[in-house]
Amino acid sequence: MGGSPQTILVSQGVNYAAGIRRRHVKMSKRSRRIAMKRRSRRMVGGSEGSRRPRNEVGRRVNVLKKLIPSSSNTMGIDELFKDTADYILALEMRLKVMQIMVKALSNASDDDVDNNKY
């Protein structure tokens, strides 16, 4: 036996640094394709947090275009963000107007109830 644990593991076909056992087994084409995709993701992605697909940003931009009423498919991202900010401000204004209307109507109904008391 006489060797360090690292030497023994390497000689048995285990990658000591990664802790992954190398198998010499014939794999099907599908399995090889899946393994290659996983390997390329690890190499390209770098860290664990960067596993998001590259088209994720494009998908989110398309969802945003559907949410904003004045947007079109031909507008750029800068214009889309500007329209989004304008739309958010318009929605905030609508909300404030509705809150004022609710206060005014609830105060008016409270006054009606107070006037009808004997």
TrEMBL record:
GO terms for cellular component: nucleus. Keywords: Nucleus, Transcription, Transcription regulation. It is found in: Nucleus. Residues 27-42 have a biased composition (Basic residues). One of its GO terms (biological process) is regulation of DNA-templated transcription. Its main location: nucleus. The keyword Transcription applies. Residues 27-57 are annotated as: Disordered. This is BHLH1 transcription factor.
